[in-house]
């Protein structure tokens, strides 16, 4: 009964976001010799500009991200960061640092002829939003941060080294069991090794386990649609991003 109550509560929250809308424009922007990023705009073309920074790193945007914003008030700008979503090349780490992403945000702002905008970021996107705002404070009208994750060691250790297992024990077991007992002193390092393996089967198995763990813990009430994304080879391979900055 308690679970049913939570599901009903989550359903009410979903109904309280704005209706689904389609972009009125979209395109791609070449930001380096290697990378081209996908962008789109929806809502009111003359509205207050807001740029959405997705999580991950490498998570990409989805149509549901448009629903955070009042489409009558906001000019809603979404884009996929380097190597993520519809941006190309997929899952590429070369020339893909935080500073490269900050530069891309500015290039996109200039490309879309936006004088200044509100910055909205969640999870990894909250870190990127803060970094961009510190680098370009005169271009930011306001910040909205949600699901704040600042990539501090204590946050990473809690989530990937066993702390979150107390809340999601069923999700933790397959994530843990992929790694031999003698390598469980640091799961991030063990997964990093496998995600960068020359053996594609080893790499993909690690990518799927990592992604499934993240998808199963993204919501207190499991979201089956998100969890299934762990079976998507292309989506799972963006896990290559995750352990990369910490070692």
Beta content? 15-25%
Distance between the termini: 44 Å
Give the overall average pLDDT: 87
The domain tally reads 2
Helix content: 25-40%
Unreliable runs, pLDDT <50, ≥5 residues? 1-13
GO molecular function: aminopeptidase activity
InterPro entries: AB_hydrolase_1, AB_hydrolase_fold, Peptidase_S33, Pro_iminopeptidase
Pfam families: Abhydrolase_1
Domain AB hydrolase-1: 49-215
Please provide a written account of the structure.
This protein has 247 residues and is of the alpha/beta class. Helix content is 38%, strand content 17%. The protein has 9 helices and 6 strands; from the N terminus they run H-E-E-E-E-H-E-H-E-H-H-H-H-H-H. Strands 1-2-4-3-5-6 form a 6-stranded mixed β-sheet, covered by helices on one side. A hairpin with a 5-residue loop joins strand 1 (25-30) and strand 2 (36-43). The model is unreliable at 1-13 (pLDDT under 50). One of its GO terms (molecular function) is aminopeptidase activity. Keywords: Aminopeptidase, Cytoplasm, Hydrolase, Protease.
């Amino acid at each position: 009964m308690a679970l049913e109550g939570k599901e009903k509560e989550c359903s009410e929250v979903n109904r309280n976001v704005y209706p689904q809308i389609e972009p009125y424009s979209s395109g791609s922007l070449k930001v380096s010799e290697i990378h081209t990023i996908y962008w789109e705009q929806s809502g009111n073309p003359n509205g207050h500009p807001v740029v959405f920074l997705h999580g991950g790193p490498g998570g990409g945007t989805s149509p549901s991200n448009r629903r955070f914003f009042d489409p009558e008030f906001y000019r809603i700008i979404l884009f996929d960061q380097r190597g993520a979503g519809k941006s190309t090349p997929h899952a590429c780490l070369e020339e893909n640092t935080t500073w490269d992403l900050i530069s891309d945000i500015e290039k996109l702002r200039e490309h879309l002829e936006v004088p200044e905008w509100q910055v909205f970021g969640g999870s990894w996107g909250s870190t990127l939003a803060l970094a961009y705002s510190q680098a370009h404070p005169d271009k930011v009208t306001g910040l909205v941060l949600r699901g704040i994750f600042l990539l501090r060691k204590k946050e990473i250790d809690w989530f990937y080294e066993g702390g979150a297992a107390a809340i999601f024990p069923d999700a933790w077991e397959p994530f843990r069991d992929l790694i031999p007992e003698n390598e469980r002193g640091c799961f991030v390092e063990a997964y990093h090794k496998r995600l960068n393996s020359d053996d594609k089967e080893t790499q993909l198995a690690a990518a799927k386990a990592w992604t499934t763990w993240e998808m199963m813990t993204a919501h207190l009430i499991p979201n089956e649609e998100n969890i299934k994304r762990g079976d998507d080879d292309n989506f799972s391979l963006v896990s290559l991003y995750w352990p990369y900055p910490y070692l």
